[in-house]
Amino acid sequence: MTTLSAFKTFTDSLPGQDQLMPVLFVGHGSPMNGIEDTEFSRRWTKLASEIPVPTAVLVVSAHWFTRGTRITAMDFPKTIHDFGGFPQALFDVQYPAPGQPALALETTKLIQSAQVELDHDWGLDHGTWTIVRHMYPKANIPVLQLSIDYSKGPQYHYELARELYALRKKGVLIIGSGNMVHNLRMVAWDRLKDPSYGYDWAVGMNDTFKSLIESGDHKPLINYSTLGKEALLAIPTPEHYLPLMYTLGLQGPKDKVSFFNDKAVGGSLTMTSVKLAA
């Protein structure tokens, strides 16, 4: 159990910084990116060298969809293999990064709009470890996950994210992990190796999302159903899109937008990722 003294010791060890930590939205795509040398995983590795070394990493993963909001609060979160039909090598992966219960407690205190539950059962799912193991292969930086409340809409998640802004001043790297365009039912499985192949509606919607992000016009992104039938094709279910709301909700007035891994996969998925940095 995390004591008040442990909480104070941890927060005291994270002095405010002059420079805000960047915020990321990462298109994670196939779990195989976690073990394969792909253009996407190579970019994740390079990304870590372009930003300050974080004091901790907090990930909002599309693969932890819960009733209510939870945050992992164990000393050593387990590696979760939440998929099927992949090679044994993927199931053999362990990412033994520590947790940070004191940071979990601090986060619950920052969030006033919801009762956040300290969770000791989940761990790091593939929306987290497939990315972070490429960024920080030594597994020496604490990693936590914040769940997505499936009973709430995009506006709720956007506003909740704004309450986490103080963590950027403490050197915490916050990552939303999902995919902007994510329609598995329409994947062209025979075109997975062709990163230039995307359905017209998927590429067009992805471009619309990017344009709105670049202009800082978040309202249509929050109310994405108003963007037409292409938006509903791009987001047939919300779990892979909602992590983007956390990234955008954390944007500050001086943050500049850049994109990376801006590719389509299998026609109906995009790996397009966002970096916000002052």
From TrEMBL:
Its cofactor is Zn(2+). Signal peptide: none annotated. It is an enzyme of class 1 (oxidoreductase). Keywords: Dioxygenase, Metal-binding, Oxidoreductase, Zinc. The keyword Nucleotide-binding does not apply. Residues 37-253 form the Extradiol ring-cleavage dioxygenase class III enzyme subunit B domain. One of its GO terms (molecular function) is stizolobate synthase activity. Its EC number is 1.13.11.29. It comes from the Bacteria. InterPro entries: Extradiol_dOase_DODA, Xdiol_dOase_suB. PANTHER family: 4,5-DOPA DIOXYGENASE EXTRADIOL-LIKE PROTEIN. Belongs to the DODA-type extradiol aromatic ring-opening dioxygenase family. This is 4,5-DOPA dioxygenase extradiol. The gene is ygiD.
